[in-house]
Amino acid sequence: MRKKLLSLLALALCIGGSAIAQTRYLDDVFTRTTIQKQVNLSYGENYYFLAFPPAPAGTSTTTPKDTVLQMDLYTPPASDTDDARPLVVYLHTGVFLPKYFNGSPTGSKSDSTVVEMCYRFAQKGYVVAAPAYRLGWNPLGGTLEIRTSTLLNAVYRAIHDVQTCVRFFKRYASTYGIDPDRIYVIGQGSAGYIALAYPFLDKQEETELPKFVFNGSSVVDTALVGNVDGTGGLYNIYNHPGYSNSVCMVANIGGAMGDISWMDQTWPRVPVAGLHCRRDVFAPYDSGTVIVPTTGQPVVDVHGTRTVIRRAVQMGLNDIWVNNTFTDPYSLRAYQLNPQNTYEGLFQIERPEIPGPAEEGSPWEWWDSTVVTMEAQAYGYPLWSTIHTDGLETNPDMSKGKAMAYIDTIVGFLTPRMYLVYQDQTVGVNNPQPEIQLNVYPNPSADVVTIQTGGSNMIEVIELMDMSGRSVLRVSNIFASTYTFSKSAIKPGNYVVAIKTTEGNIRKHIVLQ
């Protein structure tokens, strides 16, 4: 049974920034020296697609082989008596390529920033897992199809690995003393793509959007790599069956979402928080195209943190925060740049512009130049001597002190929001979307669209939204079983139609030609 540590008055005081005592999951209740760290624990197995030892990006792949999935685990001291602690699954950055071979001094679960973040949350009382996930795609592919297909499959496999990690902890919740209904997924850098997709890429047809289809087929071949829930596939192992993939909250620190149309569900109610540098050139802050940093070649159009948070607020996913008054300095700064009623959950990072063609996107990272140079050489990276200076191109004033300041902001912004989710038992509950008989046709449509319910169910409201989350059509007080609208004044493209009926709410993806 979860321990309630605060009265309602004490909770209000803590969220408002004037706590009278140390409060678990809000404040540091353990010192760093008491945190227990275990490395390279197995949480599952699956097929690895990248050559090993790693080859330079895009130069070699092998027949997939079975490999052990490992994680580092940070837990409060053995004396801790709480047996139902929330779990944070913290995902490292790395552009879905091995560290150093990704051209960066970061990209593993042992990165300085990852270790620091894991200790920070563990000191507040969380159990924290930092899993390694499978890597490998071809950023140097000569065609858009190669780049898009290999990257999407890399993200897809990584999602499966995080699902495996979540199911592992639900299976062994009593062993590790965690609450299986309170699992948070936080993705740093490129892992932000994993975190944002995790609760929303839940239908196979969402991998079949036009930008993911080449030669008539989706780049995701379920016969080989399995389904969105982690089941099936010749080269996919479904670990820990019988346990759900559901989590109670996701957050990204950089990164983006593969497509905003994935956010079309009512359940589970998963709040979304995001922190992002506004001028991050590699992962768009609002919407844009992912590019290969070394070649400048396009990969795929995606939707960034600001677009995602706006949609989350529109969908009511972040109501638990919208309806709360945060007075901490991090929230107040966030509201100076983006109003709470539209962008609650978003922290926009403003960094001074730096010289050169690239703009900074990860000021929270730091590394030891001597260590990364030695490791890159030992790992066989051919450009080992430049790995430190290459990292400075987009982080020119890199230092531990600078990174710690940004980590303070990240933890300070996320912690009170995570705490509210911890307290509210209804958030993240995996209730199914209501079974509503409803047809939307024709789809695609070049003329009119008809929405029709079945039985006694009545349509009350429809709202048509474009892929950036903006409403282009809203009709209320319909109260009929059939409604037809014309697309004549609406630009061709992909849209989401949100339909409120007397039996519940449902969303559908439609294409207007």
Total helical elements: 13
- How many domains make up the coordinates? 2
Helix content: 25-40%
Mean pLDDT: 87
Strand coverage percent: 25-35%
Largest sheet: 8 strands, mixed
Q: How far apart are the termini?
A: 53 Å
Rounded radius of gyration (Å)? 23 Å
- How many individual β-strands? 19
Q: Which spans have pLDDT < 50 for at least 5 consecutive residues?
A: 1-20, 51-61
Structural class assignment: alpha/beta
What is the molecular shape?
globular
Strand order of the largest sheet: 1-2-4-3-5-8-9-12
Q: SSE layout and pairings?
A:
Blueprint lengths: L7 H8 L20 E15 L10 E15 L9 E7 L20 H12 L3 E5 L12 H28 L1 H4 L1 E11 L3 H6 L15 E2 L2 E2 L3 H4 L23 E5 L18 E6 L9 E5 L6 E6 L1 H10 L4 H4 L6 H9 L2 H4 L2 E4 L19 H10 L8 H6 L7 H24 L14 E4 L6 E6 L5 E8 L4 E5 L6 E5 L6 E9 L2 E9 L1
Parallel strand pairs: 3-4, 3-5, 5-8, 8-9, 9-12
Antiparallel strand pairs: 1-2, 2-4, 6-7, 10-11, 13-14, 14-17, 15-16, 15-18, 18-19
Task: Describe the 3D structure.
With 513 residues, the protein is an alpha/beta fold. The chain has 2 domains: 8-184 and 197-246 and 355-423, no CATH class; 438-512, Sandwich (Immunoglobulin-like), CATH 2.60.40. The chain is 25% helix and 25% strand. It contains 13 helices and 19 strands. It has helices at 8-15, 112-123, 144-171, 173-176, 192-197, 222-225, 305-314, 319-322, 329-337, 340-343, 369-378, 387-392, 400-423; strands at residues 36-50, 61-75, 85-91, 127-131, 178-188, 213-214, 217-218, 249-253, 272-277, 287-291, 298-303, 346-349, 438-441, 448-453, 459-466, 471-475, 482-486, 493-501, 504-512. An 8-stranded mixed beta sheet has the order 1-2-4-3-5-8-9-12, sandwiched between helices. Strands 16-15-18-19 form a 4-stranded antiparallel beta sheet, with no helix packed on it. Strands 13-14-17 form a 3-stranded antiparallel beta sheet, with no helix packed on it. Strand 6 (213-214) and strand 7 (217-218) form a beta hairpin. The model is unreliable at 1-20 and 51-61 (pLDDT under 50).
